[in-house]
Design a protein that fits this description.
- The chain is mostly helical.
- It has a domain of 83 residues.
- It is 69% helix and 0% strand.
- The longest helix is centred in the C-terminal third of the chain and has 33 residues.
Length: 128
Amino acid sequence: MRPLETPLAVDQGVSVRRDRMWGWIGAILGVAVGVGSAGIAILVEGASLYQSSPYPPFFTARRLLAYDLFLAAVIVVGAIFAIFGIVLARRSRFPRTDAMGGALVGTILLLLGAALVFTRLVAVIRGS
């Protein structure tokens, strides 16, 4: 027996309440990543608040930093949210809202973490 194909209307599979929930999740994670990044850079790695250069001097250190572990955690959490978005596309009661929310949060975290890791890599190469 072949599976039935049933097109959905544009307004089906969406939820305003869940859309708001994903907005709050994204906002909370965004603040946590921003404050965590600045906190680790300043308090743990000793970055200056007032330095104006392409990147802070601790980026050029040729060793594993607490900041690197933080960025790895951001990338892992982003990947988990992206995978969660894929699963929710098939399993959620509101697949359009939940899949978009999970995929968007995951994509933003993955891109942010990867961009900072790439910047650190460039700083290590240029600093040596």
